[in-house]
Amino acid sequence: MIPADREPARQAAVDLAAAVGPAEARYALEPIARLEGPREALAVLALALARVHGRPAWLLAAASTALSPVLHPRALPADNGYAFGTVEPRPEQYAEAEDAVRLLQNLLTRLTGL
Question: Quick check: 49 and 64 in contact, CB under 8 A?
């Protein structure tokens, strides 16, 4: 990783950790709060992707694509019947999305020497 890419990737690692936090703390949250973390992680990736080039950009773009299913779940019932293609996730899907963010955060931490 070139020095210019190291700082945005390092900041992304810090922001990803803040987005999902420790697993134990997430289990007690309401569904809407649980979806907030992985969705925030996608925003973190988008910002970091705009600031890096080459292989780090490819990595962050691939991670964004892999995490994009977190945009399909909804946490609230579709009262009027319109759900715009969203689905209600199973409880384990929240944990899977959060774990994926933690794995990416761990990888970026190792790559940047944080």
Answer: yes
